[in-house]
Amino acid sequence: MNVFRLLGDLAHLASIFILVHKMHITRSCRGISFKTQALYVLVFLTRYLDLFWAWISWYNFLMKIFFISSSCYILYLVHYRFRPTYDPSLDTFKVEYLVGPCFVLALIFNYHFDFSEILWTFSIYLEAVAIFPQLFMMQRTGEAETITTHYLAALGVYRALYIPNWIYRYYTEGTVDPIAIVAGIVQTGLYLDFFYVYVTKVLQGQKFELPA
Amino acid sequence: DEGNVVHDEL
C-alpha cells in the first residue's frame, strides 16, 4: 500500500457516498445513468469473485464487500426507489457495444487463460469504459447538477491516482501490471474533457454546462 | 507462465 493508492481508494469511497447523498437529498436519480451503475455492479462482481479463494488483507476484503454491496444498493435506488425520476430516453448508450468488445479483449489479452483471470481482465477493461453511458447522457442534456459533477470528479480522481501508484510500485517493488496500467490510463483519459469543464466552471462556482 | 497471478489492488 502507498499513499497514492490509499488516496485513490478513498476518492473512490467518497464518490460512492456523494452519489448516494445526492440521491437522498434530491430524492431523485435525475442525471444518473442507470446503465453506468449497472456496469459497475458487473465490474465489481466479476473482479471481486476472488473473495472466495484469495485472501489479501482485511482492507482488501472489506473494501471488496463495500464496493459490491454499495453498487447493488445504488442500482436498487435508481431502479426501484427513485425510478419515477429516471428518464430512460436520456440513457440510450448501447452497453452491448462495451460489454461485448471487453469480453473479447479479455479472451485475447490476459495473463492466464482461465475462468477467474478472464473475469478479472474483463472487469478491468469494462471499468475503463463503464462511464461512457454517464458521459453520453451528460452530452445529450448538456448540463449536470453540481453534486453529480462532484461524484464524477471523485471517480476520475480515483483512477488518476492509481497512475502514480503504479509508477511508485514499479520503482519500489519492480511490479508492473500492464493490463491494469493501460486500461487505467484509458479510463483516466476519458475524464479529461469532463475535468476541464469541472475545473474551469464548477470549481469557479458556475454551473456545469457544455458548450452547445 | 503466470499461472498464479495475485491481484492485490482494488
Automatic annotation (TrEMBL), chain A:
An annotated GO BP: protein retention in ER lumen
As one GO molecular function, the record gives: ER retention sequence binding
InterPro entries, per database record: ER_ret_rcpt (IPR000133)
Name of this protein:
ER lumen protein-retaining receptor
> What protein family does this chain belong to?
Belongs to the ERD2 family.
Chief place where the protein resides? endoplasmic reticulum
Q: Which GO terms describe its cellular component?
A: endoplasmic reticulum membrane
Q: Keywords in UniProt for this one?
A: Endoplasmic reticulum, ER-Golgi transport, Membrane, Protein transport, Receptor, Transmembrane, Transmembrane helix, Transport
